[in-house]
Amino acid sequence: MNNMNKSKMLNAYKSVNNLKGNPQPEEEKETKAPKIYRSEYDEKLIKEYHFAKFQKNLDLLQNNQEVIALLKKEEWDEEDIKTLLASFR
User: Fold this and answer.
1) 46, 86, 42: which is closest to 64 by C-alpha?
2) Most exposed residue of 32, 74, 81, 86, measured as fewest CB within 10 angstroms of its CB?
3) Neighbours of 64 (CB within 10 A)
4) How confident is the model at residue 51 (pLDDT cuts 50, 70, 90)?
5) Mean pLDDT across the stretch 1-29?
6) Over 70: is that where the pLDDT of 27 sits?
7) How far lies 53's CA from each of 12, 40, 50, 57, 88, in Å?
8) What residues contact 80, with CB distance under 8 A and at least 6 apart?
């Protein structure tokens, strides 16, 4: 696409946005991030939950004797891979 077509396309999008009745300055468009969480409390709670879940899974893997034995092996067969994948579930 050459520069002429790109600029025409961008101008067309700007025109359509202006027709919707809510033109916004360029600065506002860039700084306005989409809202993912309903509140700061929800964000904190969800992030803490996922971090705790991660810590639990990490602890289970680090203390799993089958995984420790697998990591010490130099050659793995298909059963070793299945054991490792089962430990992730």
Assistant:
1) 86
2) 74
3) 15
4) very high
5) 64
6) no
7) 47, 20, 5, 6, 13
8) 70, 73
3-state secondary structure of 1: coil
The Cα–Cα gap between 42 and 48 comes to 10
Q: Tokens 């964000």: give the residue.
A: 43
**Which pair of structure tokens corresponds to residue 51?**
């971090």
Q: How many helices (H) and strands (E) does the chain have?
A: 5, 0
Residue 46 tokens, joined: 């969800």
Q: Which amino acid is at 19?
A: L
Q: Which residue has the higher pLDDT, 69 or 27?
A: 69
Q: Which residue has the tokens 């468009």?
A: 29
- Measuring CA to CA, how many Å separate 11 from each of 2, 8, 15, 26, 72? 14, 5, 6, 14, 61
Query: Is the entire prediction scored with pTM above 0.85?
Result: no
What is the per-residue pLDDT for 45?
A: 94
